[in-house]
Amino acid sequence: MANSFGSKTDLVVGDKSYSIHALSATSHLGDVSKLPFSLKILLENLLRNEDGISVKASDIEYLINSRNGAAPQEIAFSPARILMQDFTGVPAVVDLATMRDAMIELGGDPNKVNPLIPAELVIDHSVIADDFGNSDSFSINAGLEAQRNKERYQFLRWGQQAFDNFSVVPPDTGICHQVNLEYLARVVFVDDNNNAYPDTLVGTDSHTTMINGLSVVGWGVGGIEAEAAMLGQPISMLVPRVVGIRLSGTLPAGTTATDLVLTVTEMLRAHGVVGKFVEFYGPGCANVPLENRATIGNMSPEYGSTITVFPIDDEVLKYLSLTGRSKDQIALVEAYAKTQGLWLDPDHVPQYDEYLELDLSTIVPSIAGPARPQDRVPLTQGKERFIDALEKSFAQQGSKSELSNKVPVTLKDGRSFDIDHGHIVIAAITSCTNTSNPSVMVAAGLVAKKAVELGLKAKPWVKTTLAPGSKVVMDYYDRAALTPYLEKLGFFLVGYGCTTCIGNSGPLLPEVSAAIAAGNISAVSVLSGNRNFEGRINPDVRMNYLASPPLVIAYAIAGTMNINLASEPLGETTGGKAVYLSDIWPSEAEVAEVIRQSIGTEMFASSYNNAFLGDERWQTLDTPSGSQFKWNNKESTYVHKAPFFAGITPTPAPVKPIVGARVLGVFGDSVTTDHISPAGSIKASSPAGEWLSMRGVPQGDFNSYGARRGNHEVMIRGTFANIRIRNRLVEPKEGGFTKLFPEETITTIYDAAMTYQERGVSLVILAGKEYGSGSSRDWAAKGTFLLGVRAVIAESFERIHRSNLVGMGILPLQFITGDSIASLGLSGQEVFDISGVEELAQSDSLPDMVTVTAGDKSFDVKVRIDTPKELDYYRHGGILQYVLRNLAKS
């Protein structure tokens, strides 16, 4: 490394000495103390990785002075480690294994395809809440998970022995972000050469930002970008604008971290922070416990920021101590932070690009829905806003349904009731967002206790599930004697993983499901997660609301969204007395006392003592051996050799113009990666379901799209197949359908794409604002590529998906300001030519515009290849092809 500024020095902590790169060595270039915390982390990263090639001295100088109105400039960021979950991790390992085969084709050494930095994968996305409401639910669901995913888990165990620097946390341990928070994160990383530097990471899940609450700079990227980082490729990024939020005050009694998070989500989505760093400062930071900070950080993707971080302070040290980190590690974190100016000073105001303020005392109880996390609803307005949303839903469907549409139901046990619009059929305490936070989890337990003591019950049509983020939660529930009360309301443990929040909610009671279909009922889910997009939670559920864990309990008792929880009774005591939410809501003092008595360091030590070993079921799995994976594409329905490197040549083919393209889909605003990428259950009548049935897979073993991400044959058939996606070419029809031209035949998107491929016709997608918002689903780009899409033209893109499109060799194009599908009069029936694309092959600078001709219309669009490195990726047909060719040459 160059060390141009002489920043390398020693830091002595106790009896240990570490090598660090001191930020103070650059003070002659500018006032480093005024840099935001997050940019100081990037500055250290540049100093440590300065090599004169990827990182130059001029990059370091630029970063220090970037607050002074300098034009955006690209830098190379090298994370300390990679975090993966199994949905995104399996296809990443499939790609790495396929790259080893492709390396042989290119005449290189296959063992060069190996993670160069630690890559940690936590299996947390595969458990499904099939069984619920009884003491055997966890063991039943864990058994089904092991049975369904045996092939995937064998593949991951192969990867663990085949690749260096690759570790797997087995299933039934916890959610990756909570395992990261409680165990994996270092805050200050120490490598094998005793170099100490900030723990940084990128993760193949958008909610990687949860770790920002522990003052670790990390964010979600697509699996494609993560794979390149694993193989030593720095992440190319523009130095982001940084938004500073000054915190003051304290949360009022009766409010929770969830209420704070939903307010921040609404506030920042309205302000506009897509692609920016968000950082908190000011005196109010001391009043935000670390678990609340993590809850805020977790929601970054929901308002579009790259990170939402708090600087290091005593809260960080207290949390490290609570969760069992060593005294030496805690001492290093404190000494390093104070030496490098990374310690939070409540009176210090860094130089931010934008300033906001939030008084914590203004937070009120809230929920969010029915389809977007940023659509916050004060609890006092829950009923009226639900009715408004229901009426809009009817109008969208072209339905004349009445607000009341009761369908009678009789369960197998003889209980009878009516199902109506707004009835809550799923109440789930789930997801990383809140189940990391003892304050809301304990509050939920206390709400359950008080409710049971007053004789309240959950409604019989509600599927009640409890899926904590780590085993520690059940430990403190048991120690506080709250588990029996939760179970009496039906909230039995169903698994340690991302269940309802990612669509692994499992089936409803069959009688309830049938009634919803018979009456076209707009049923509701309430969950403590971070995502409530259309079609995500359950195919039977049309409206979804985010809420704190204690409110999930309350809504399960109420059984309907057609209630004002703030003023109407939840139910009655056994004596007939009305019970209100205020009657069962615990005080802050009650919650704090339970936490004090029930949570200890030994719980974390016990839970993570053998984090990478797993149970006997995991340890006794038959595992393939060898450095090359033995593919079985004929028999396997889970793991297939990836098609992305077939026929790869040492040099890329020339970039070709896009001529005679057809439109595969015309979409509106806020089309999410959940709409695009295959997710949730696989219907028997879908192209993916038909493919599985033809191979003898019974419908009960279809599993989910997420579990089959290692098989491109399933995934391509599920791309753009979300049951709620609306393609304007086939309005008002919902789902994965399009119109095949020139015949104008309505068919599935998959079948149309295959027909176009047979005819040699390229495809484009047209869309509105915020295209690709949501999770960092690499298959949203991979599936789009395999369908034959060459370009996506949208009004705006979310950060991760735009990057993923480039990473797959798809051209992201943005309408210039004022232009849109509607303003240009585009119908989607036109034939598209995009001229100027071939110039991307020769240009040394980033091209700004290309010209689109659609039928008799012609207009310019902005090329959203944002950095020179991305241009290299596009020329090579994708980021992995670029990396593979470079590895083969080296």
UniProtKB/TrEMBL annotation:
Catalytic activity, reaction form: citrate = D-threo-isocitrate
Gene Ontology MF term list: 4 iron, 4 sulfur cluster binding; aconitate hydratase activity; metal ion binding
Alphabetical keyword list: 4Fe-4S, Iron, Iron-sulfur, Lyase, Metal-binding, Tricarboxylic acid cycle
Record has 4Fe-4S as a keyword: yes
Record-linked PROSITE patterns: ACONITASE_1 (PS00450), ACONITASE_2 (PS01244)
SUPFAM superfamilies per the UniProt record, alphabetical: Aconitase iron-sulfur domain, LeuD/IlvD-like
EC number(s) per entry: 4.2.1.3
Pathway: Carbohydrate metabolism; tricarboxylic acid cycle; isocitrate from oxaloacetate: step 2/2
Superkingdom: Bacteria
CDD domains assigned: AcnA_IRP, AcnA_IRP_Swivel
GO biological process: propionate metabolic process, methylcitrate cycle; tricarboxylic acid cycle
Required co-factors: [4Fe-4S] cluster
Stored InterPro entries: AcnA_IRP_Swivel (IPR044137), Acnase/IPM_dHydase_lsu_aba_1/3 (IPR015931), Acoase/IPM_deHydtase_lsu_aba (IPR001030), Aconitase/3IPM_dehydase_swvl (IPR015928), Aconitase/IRP2 (IPR006249), Aconitase_4Fe-4S_BS (IPR018136), Aconitase_4Fe-4S_dom (IPR036008), AconitaseA/IPMdHydase_ssu_swvl (IPR000573)
Domain Aconitase A/isopropylmalate dehydratase small subunit swivel residue range list: 692-815
UniProt enzyme class: lyase
Span of domain Aconitase/3-isopropylmalate dehydratase large subunit alpha/beta/alpha: 73-559
Family under the similarity heading: Belongs to the aconitase/IPM isomerase family.
Protein purpose: Catalyzes the isomerization of citrate to isocitrate via cis-aconitate.
Protein name (Swiss-Prot/TrEMBL): Aconitate hydratase
Lineage, opening ranks: Bacteria, Bacillati, Actinomycetota, Acidimicrobiia, Acidimicrobiales
Gene this protein is translated from: acnA
